[in-house]
Structure formats: structure tokens, C-alpha cells
Amino acid sequence: MGLTGIQIFKLLPKTNCKECGSPTCLAFAMALAGGKAELDKCPYVSDEAKATLSEASAPPIRGVQIGDKKVGEELVFYRHEKTFINPTAIACLVTDEMDDAEVDAKINNLNTVTFERVGLTLSADLLAIRNSSGDAGKFEALVNKALGATEKGLILMSDNLDALEAGAKAANGKGALLYAATADNCEKVAEIAKANGASVVAKGASVEEVSNFTGKIVAAGVKDVVLDTGATDLKSMFYNENQVRRAALKAKNRDLGFPTIEVICDMTDDPYKEAMLANVAIAKYAGIIVMSDIDKERMLPLLVQRLNIYTDPQRPMVMDEGIYEINKPGPDSPVIITTNFALTYFIVAAEIEASRVPTWLLIMDVEGMSVLTAWSAGKFVADAMAPFVVKSGMKEKINHNKIIIPGYVAQISGEFQEELGTDWEVIIGTREASDLPAFLKGL
Amino acid sequence: MAFSAQTEKYSGKMGTLTFGSGDQALTVGGQASMPFAAFDGDLPNKAVIAMEVYDVVNPEWPAAVVEPFKDVINDPVAWAKKNVEEYGAKAICLQLASTDPNGEDKDAAYAADLVSKMLAAISVPLIVWGSGAVEKDAEVLAKVCEVNEGKNLLIGPAVEENYKKIAAAALGYGHAVVSQSPIDVNMAKQMNILINNLGLPMDKIIMEPSTAALGYGVEYSYSVMERISLAALAQNDEKMQCPMINDLGKECWKAREVMLSDKEEPGFGPDQEKRGVLWEAMTAVDMLLAGSNLLIMRSPKAVKLVEECINELSA
Fold first, then answer.
1. What is the number of alpha carbons within 13 Å of residue A439 lying toward its C-beta?
2. How many A/B residue pairs have CB atoms within 8 Å?
3. Based on the number of CB atoms within 10 Å of its own CB, is A156 exposed (0-12), middle (13-18) or buried (19 or more)?
4. Could you tell me if A286 and A234 lie in one domain?
5. Considering its fold, how many domains does chain A have in total?
6. Which of A287, A362, B45, B286 lies 20 to 30 angstroms, CA to CA, from A219?
7. What is the pLDDT of residues B214-223, one digit of tens each?
8. CB-CB: which of B1, B286, B306 is closest to A253?
9. For residue range A189-208, what is the model confidence (pLDDT) as tens digits?
10. Phi, psi (5° rounding) for residue B295?
11. Mean pLDDT across B183-187
């Protein structure tokens, strides 16, 4: 990865034909190196150069698509170095030895357990179907049932190649992930995957064992590989995940340059412990985790954990501008204005909620800055806030004229009052959100 | 390409902090690798969980977290004993919430006396935490130090506005200090330097880089702590080599995802205790993965889950 512009230039035709849109081949090479152009724009590039360039520009950890969910493509060890990219996919396990009611309940949870947060819908991602019975017919029937019951991507798990093939055929074209190829059968599994548009898990007892045969799967024509390095508990999972990422990013080991899968429901029977394993797996590099169930109480913290860890540190989470109703406010309820930094919103909203005082929370778009930052950047100031308040439609919902500003911007109250005129009365609120309940109750 | 295991070697290592006195003293920190990476360097001391005790409880606490203590909730000394004897607490953190001037506003002499009684009743090291009111904390914690001289308490939080009085009292009467800074690597370092300049040695200081719960900025605490850990280990920055503590119980148990019943928010699920326990346990594990050495936690179930994680990852 990461050829320089000059290295790329040497592989180009050097005719300066301009057909790519760049004035010279050198300019085009520079644009390619900076990721600002696609090689396809050059009509005359040789196949050899194409191969070299695509090899060199391949990410150190391959991106693998399962259904509509992509995993892999990670570039760092610590999120502050840049960001984590594709959030860990969470899968729910069903087996062909469960009765219909159990399967239905689990698929229903997978389909319906969702949470809204910062304008996003958080949910689990994949259905893992295991051929516990060993019977190919039963497995195929369950895959067919699942295809009718969920839109989520599928992981098909069987040691029986006939069953795996039957399942893969049933799910042909759905981008399923086959689990698993081993050192002994990897060519056959790759063949099945190739024939049915599926990707493949390479499974072994250790990182080293897996690294020895992923190349065979790729050589057989399946480039989308996921690694199961045989972890059986928290400690081995932590070690293996660290080693796989180090191998891919530091040693540039292409044989381990793939996302990982951890079947954590096989590591414990305790739902709490499973949640803790999932928590560590999300923070420490797992591409996919397979869990025993998608229940609300475990998913809420896990999905928030995933959102937090995978948030781009350079781009704060933001809320949509607008009026938020907390504790079912009415015409005489107080109005509080603050910024659209998601953290500000969450903390303020949680305190209002805890106070049980019905309140209107007016959220202003200041590009996701906190109150003081937005104030010093000239975005949360009187002449910007006043037009926003007027246009917000807040006035039409209330029968009073009081608006509460954060205590940290007390200094703008005079000017804000002036801008708003007699339609509003500006009140200075608390500096800390934690003092809001007492403040609201004392109004 | 053949696989070979990669290890990281760091030029620096984290310092240690010992709190408590005599046979009961506990030491945290001293790690020469990132968290749980024993394959890279020595991890001499396991992370410790201190269980919280409040001298006054907010009536808004969810029933799920009152339940384990309901027989002792109005008696902090009995609560501390229960945490040690029944829930296996390895350390106790006394939260002096009643000294808050916006609350009961109890005085310093009361606090110092309560600490003495608690020390006499329990056999594990004690952390004493102020209410967060900057000026009052300085007054209360100074008195706690004076009255309990030589007990090697861990006291805090000392912040930019009140560290002088707190650190001087700790130095004068033989205690250790929590140095708290607002989610910022440079501010954390600055606080260590300021406190150290007053004469308190680095091994009497532990950093609290400001703890946020899951969903309420945990990623900021996480990344600041990873950066502090790397500064201490990879850059061998001596002023960043104080171990870290996270005061997380109170942050987790006020999250709306924990406070609201399934009647108020049906989408969150009916088992409110499970939500709360996992909210606290997951926040705690995040802090450990980012480099924490000492956690302040509330729910006995969450403590047990996190201790299992620590033990398995350290095995």
C-alpha cells in the first residue's frame, strides 16, 4: 500500500494524452497517489501496471461484504490515530436443532431490536445458521426459511460439505459467508463459495495455522476471506486479535490481511459473560461476533459501545437542529436552548429527563460544537441564535416567553435579549447540566 | 508469508501507587505494556475495583442499584462492611455526597469523623472522595487528612482550583492524591506537575482523566487514556507515569438508559437491572482496556463481572 506519485508515474504510458482529464501523466500519477483519481480514467495503461497498482493500493486488511454489511479495511490500532472504520458486525446464532418457535423468536429479535440515536438506527447485522444436526436437508430447509424471514446477511456454518453446499446454493447471490474452510478442505470450500458468490471463513486452531492456508483460498479464486483463529476464551481472543492486526498492519502479512470472526456464544453459556466478551471484541479488533441472542438489555449497551468506539474522533456526533420534547412538555413548559454536539444533547436531555420536569429542548446547529467552543467560534452567539429561535417555531408551541440559555454563555444574555426584542425573556440557566434538575424544579 | 508473533517493547513504564497502610496496603500500576498485553511487557499489579459507599443517597437512584444495599443504605459504615464481607470488595471509596453545599452541607469535622469510623470498621484500603464542590472539598479533605494522619488514604479529586490545599494536607499527614483533569492529555500532565511541584512524590499521585459513561462520551475518556498510556510507555514521559483511576459508578447509574423503566421507555427492555449492570460493567471494561488501574464502581454484580474479566485477561 501507498506507492508514491513517482513510483506510479513510472508505470503509466507517459504520453501526456490528457484523456484522463489531467494535464500530464505526472499530474495524474500524483492525483492517484493522493486518492483523488481512479486508474480506470487512463485508457492506455497496461494490464501489468494495473495489476501492480491494484496490488499496491489494496488495503492492508481487506474489506469483506456479507449481505449489506461490510467489515474489515481497518488501518490503525488505536482510534485516536485516525479512526476505526467498519463497525464490528453482530450476528445472532440459530441452529437446525432448535425448534421452530425458538428460531422464530431469535430471528424476530434480530429483525426488530433497534435503537434510535443521533439520527442513526442501531441494530444487529447478521444471521448465523449452524448445521448442528449434521443433516444437509435440515440445514438447507432452515437456510430457506431464514431467507424468507430476514433481510440480514447470512453466515452458513457446517462441517458437512454437502450441507454447506446445499445452504450456499439456497443463498446463492446473497453474499453469504461460509463457515468454515480448514487446512484440509479449504480448496473444496473455496470452490463452493466461488460457485455461489459467497465469502469464506478460514478456521484453524491458531493464528499461525490459519495463516498457512488463506493463500490457497485466494488462489482458488475467493478473495473475500474472514479469519477464525481458534480463540476459546477472553484471553486467547484478546491475544489472537492483537496478533492478527499486528501481522496485517505492521508485518504487512497478506495471508492475515483479512477481518476476523469470533464465535463468542461458543466461549460461554452465561449471557452476561457473553456481553463482556462482545464488549472486548468490539474494542479490540473483531470484524464479526456471533452471539446467542439479540435481546434489548444487552444490545442497547453493546450497540452504543460500538457506536462510541467507531465514531470518527475528528468528526463529533451531531444532533439534528430542532425542537426536542422531553417529559411530554405543554404550552407552559420551560424552553432551554443549547448546541447540537451530541454529547451536550445527551447530557442535558438525561438531566432534564431525570428531573421529570416537562421541558422543550431547542437544539441549534453549530456544527457539533459544545457550548463554550461554539461561543468562542462565533456560532453560538446572539446574532446567530436570535434568528434561529424566531424561525424554530418554538413560540407557537408555548404560552409564555421565557428562554433559558446555558450558564456558560451568561455574557451573551443582554445582547441576545436585544436581538430577540420584547417577544422573549432571556433567562440564564446553570453552568453544569447536573444542576439542571434543581434549577428546573425551582422555576 | 510465514506468521511470527509480534511484540512491542516500550522504553518507559508506568509508576506505581500504594494506598492503605500496613498489611492491608494495595499497590496498583507499574505496567510496562498496554493493558493486558502481558505478551509485550511486565504487568506486575492487577487492576483493582473499589466499591462505592455514599453517606447520603440520591432518592432518584434506580431500585436495581439500591436493592443490594437496602438494609445498610443509611449507614455508610455498615454499607462499607457489607461491601467487604459480603461482596468481597478489595477497597472502599467513601463518597462524601452530604458535604455538598448545595445539598446537606455537612461540615469537615463530620466527614473526618466518619472516615475514622470507617477505617476502624473495615480491613481494606479506603479512598475518600469529595462532593465535587471545589472549595468545600479542599476544606473537607484537608480535615480528613489531618484527623486520620498516617493512614495513607487516597483522597480526591484534586482539581486545578483546589489542588494546593488538598495536596499540602496529603503531604503533611501521609496520604495519596487523585489528580483530576478535564478529558485532556496536556491538562492531565499539567496537574501532575503542579501537584508534584508542591512536594508530593509521583508515587503518591493517581490520575483521574475525567470519566464519561457509555453513551455519554466514553470514547473521549477512552482515547485520552490510551494517549496517556502511550505517552508514559512509548515516549517515556516521566510526568505522565502516574497510574490512572476512574470514578465511573456515579456516571453510569445516572444514564437515561439505566434510569428509565420499561414503562417509560419500552424499547429499552424490561430487565432494568440487567441494563444497569451491563452499562456499568461495559464502561468499566472500556476504562481497563484504555489503561485504568483502579475503578470506583457501585453494583456488586457489575463488580463481579469486571473482576472475572480482569482475572481471565491476566491469567
1. 21
2. 144
3. buried
4. yes
5. 3
6. A287
7. 999 999 999 9
8. B1
9. 999 999 999 999 999 999 99
10. -115, 140
11. 93
Distance of CA A237 to the CA centre of its chain: 21
- For residues A278 and A389, state if they share a domain: no
A280 chain-B contacts, CB cut-off 8 A = 285, 289, 309
Q: Per the CB < 8 Å rule, is A256 touching B3?
A: yes
Is B3's Cβ below 8 Å from some Cβ in A?
yes
Chain B from 198 to 257: CB within 8 A of any A CB: 212, 214-220, 222-223, 226-227, 230, 254-257
Answer yes or no: is A111 within a domain.
yes
B10 inside 8 A of chain A by CB: no
Domain membership of residue A84 as a residue range: 64-310
Domain ranges for chain B, please list them. 16-314
| Distances B92 to A186, A339, A387 between C-alpha atoms, Å | 54, 38, 52
Question: Nearest CA to CA, how far is A208 from chain B (Å)?
Answer: 6
* Cβ pair A429, A407 in contact under 8 A: yes
| CB–CB contact B215 A297 (8 Å) | no
| Residue A113 falls inside a structural domain | yes
A1 pLDDT above the threshold of 50? no
**A315: in domain:** no
Q: How confident is the model at residue A2, as a pLDDT?
A: 62
Single pTM value for the model: 0.91
- In sequence order, the β-bridge partners of residue B154 are B127, B176
Dmax of chain A from CA atoms?
81
- What topology is assigned to B16-314 in CATH? TIM Barrel (3.20.20)
